[in-house]
Write the structure tokens for this entry.
Amino acid sequence: MEAITTALLMELIQSVESIPATPILAYLPRGREIALDIAVTQDEKYLFSVCQLNEQARCFSTRPYFAEKIAKGETFKSGGHWEPAGHLAVAEAIKRYLVDQGYVTAP
């Protein structure tokens, strides 16, 4: 399964580069991962390893953003599909990454 996933992600990265653009992959935590108190999950390590295969690709995780929100008292559904708060947290995390890395300018 990992070999197939890696091949698909590498094809995606190459397609993005061909237009030309910077491929940016965001890790989206699932279930209880949202609240895990560890530096990096195995799935995050995997995604980051895919980006290491291509020097143009960028990877980041939205999980630390959830941790920030949880530390401030917010709660998120840990099973099934995210609720609106989960979607908003991911959107904010992606925006923060794109702005902080200089890919877009915030209004």
